[in-house]
Hints:
The protein is α/β, with parallel strands linked by helices. The chain has one domain (3-148): Alpha-Beta Barrel (TIM Barrel), CATH 3.20.20.140. The protein is 47% helix and 16% strand. It has a five-stranded parallel beta sheet with strand order 1-2-3-4-5. The two termini are 19 Å apart.
Amino acid sequence: MGYIVIEGRNFEKARKEIKQNQDKTIIFSNEDEELNRKILEKECVNILLLNQSNKKDRLKQRDSGFNHVLAKMAKAKNVTIGINLDEIIHSDKKNKAKILGRIRQNIKLCKKAKLKMMFFSEKENRNSLDLNALGLVLGMPTWMLKEFQ
């Protein structure tokens, strides 16, 4: 049993692809917050992978694409929140700082809602101890870090 990454811009196409791959671990990735909410409400996915690189922050608030409403829905459906490790590694210094700030905000929301989080990477293979260290630096509690081992 493997995994499949579904990157959908259209709800109907994403829904069709999710229905076809029910036997695999489904990772849904998208930048649109509304589509993420629709998918969490109506479909069964295992991991919601949040992409942070193309977001634009507001004046006094970060736009991480994740909020307390999505956190409650993810908790009710037992969905794990994924952090895209490739985005962190392959971005320049200025964008990397913004991405890490958004990830810290998402970690606080997940900690409050008691959601599971994980790092996901298609290109990079990292040691679980490195991922644990990164998670601790970003503010993950130790109960979240047990998932990486």
